[in-house]
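Lab notebook, bench 4. Continuing the backlog of folding jobs that were queued last week. Each job is logged with the same field layout so the records can be merged later without manual cleanup. Today's entry covers Xylose isomerase-like TIM barrel domain-containing protein, a 320-residue chain. Filled in by technician R.K.

JOB TYPE: sequence-to-structure
TARGET: Xylose isomerase-like TIM barrel domain-containing protein
LENGTH: 320
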Amino acid sequence: MGAYTIRMPKVATKLGLGLGMDLPWGGEIGFQQDAVQGETITPKMKAFFAKYRGDFSYLFFAFQPKNRNRLRAEDYFTAYDRLFAEVPDIKHRAFHHTMLNMGSLEPYEKAEIIEFTNALIERYRLTWIVEDLGLWSLHGKVLPFPLPPYLTQEGLKACIRNIAEYQEKLLAPLCVEFAGFTEGSNFYIGELDAFDYFREIAMETGSPVTIDLGHVLSYQWLKGNTGERMFEGLERMPLEHCFEFHLSGCQIIKGKFRDLHHGVLLDEQLQLLEYLLPRCPQLKAVTYEDPHYTEDGTLIAKAQPNFLRMQEIVERWAGA
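JOB STATUS: finished
OUTPUT FIELD FOLLOWS
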């Protein structure tokens, strides 16, 4: 492939530390039906936003459908309006999709998904869209946990085809996120190397990428690359395409890497963060994903030490 342009999000300077949240309907954290206000975020979330106001420079949230039978942006406006009204100081917004299904081999209708996404991009001035590269549904049935894409030549061609169409038709750049490989909760098919696979997709589609550090470690652990070996092969990833990092709570249990999203960061994730920061020249954003906190909005005690370390690392990088 000759010279090409990476479709980077339009962000001129480093954003620093941002916040990523999965927001289901009807839980302690997420959206709820209020008798007076209608659809809004929960009191626990409001307490968190109040407690950490000024600590995050951008926000994304993961899409949780209200209704599997129809996809209309208007159905979400009330709830999303109230979410963003709660954090008026956060100027940059993004959207973590869960319906793009970029790893699908089978043809599927994208027009409705694109129309829905573009309506959100225009209403909320979303700077970028992100989704894990992989399979989120099979034959129309939603999977409980996204699976890595087929690591085969056929799977690679399908990913490139799907991503190219989204990059052409979405009104904001799509950041393709490296898939998770948590042993025990998902599996993968194929023999291609995931780092090489990811790099080829980025180069063939000109896509910006998101590197979830827990996902990278999950793949390394699966390959037996633990300890100092966790840095092996990282130069094969498309680091020059990287716009964003994700860090969510992870744990190593009996030698197995678990991507639990419980808010507690591992020392290994911070080591990898410091290793990759100077190697990603177009990086603009580092996201703390799915914090866990108490009713008054305070991060749980176990999460606080490495959250503070991450803040210090990111501040140092953003100020350099």
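OBSERVATION: Residues 67 and 75 are 9 Å apart (CA to CA).
SIGNED: R.K.
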